[in-house]
Amino acid sequence: MKRPLQVTLLVLSGLGLLHASLFTDLSLRFVKEGMRPMLVASGVLLLVLGVAEAWSSQKPGSGDDASDSHSHDHGQDDGHGHDHSTVPRIAWLLFLPALSLLFYAPPALGAYTAAREAPKAVTEQRYFDPLPATSPIPLTLTQFTSRVQQDHKRDIGGRSVRMTGFVTPDKGADGWYLTRIIFTCCAADAQSVKVRIHGAAALPANTWVTVTGTWHPGGTLGTSSAPAALDARTVKKVAKPVNAYTDALPLF
Fold this sequence. Notes:
With 252 residues, the protein is of the alpha/beta class. It is 30% helix and 17% strand. The chain has a 5-stranded mixed β-barrel with strand order 2-3-4-6-5. The longest helix has 21 residues, at 3-23. The relative contact order is 0.13.
C-alpha cells in the first residue's frame, strides 16, 4: 500500500476511535465504560503514528519516490509473474471499519439479540440483606431474580418493586419481557437478564420503561421453580440511559 494511503488509514482510524470514545458515547455500544481510556489512548497513538509517517515521507530520499526508484532498479516482477508493487484488493477493505467509526455506527444491541438467547444465569447467593421499608423497592433485574429464586425468607412476596429496562416482545405468549443486556467486557460476551411482565400491554420493542408491580405467583417462592415475573401496576416510558449495558437501579 502506498505511503499516502497508509497515512490516511492511520489518521482515519485514530479519528474514528476518538470520535467513538472521546467526543461521543458510541463506544459504550461495544465495550464497558472502564475501557474508554484505552480506546482514547489507542486513537491518540494512531494519530501520532499517522503524523509521524507523513512527516518522515517529507524527508529527502524517503517516501514513494525512493521506493519507486528501488523498484525500477531491481524490477517489480519476481520472475514468477508476481507483481509485488500491486496493492492487494482486499487491503482496501481496511478503510471500511475506519470510515464506519466516523460516519456509521452499527446499531446498539437490543430486543432482537435478547429474544434469541437464554437469560444470564443468576449467581448463587445464600444471604440477603433485609428489604428496605420503602415502597416500591428499587431493584435491578438481577436482584429481583435472585430474591425470587434464592431468598428462602421469601421477603419479596407481596412487596411492590420498581425496575427499569427495555421492552422485548414475546410473540405468541402472554406478557413481554423487561430486559437488560450486560457486558462483562464487550459486546462479544453480552448476556441478557429478563423479567416477564404480566398485566400490561407491550410497548414497541427496545422502548425503555420503568415498571412497578409485585411478583407474579408461580412455583415456590425462594426456589428455582419460581418464575422471574412481575404483575405490573404501572409502566412508564423513560429515556435510554447513557451507559445502557449494565443492570442498574431504576431510572426515576
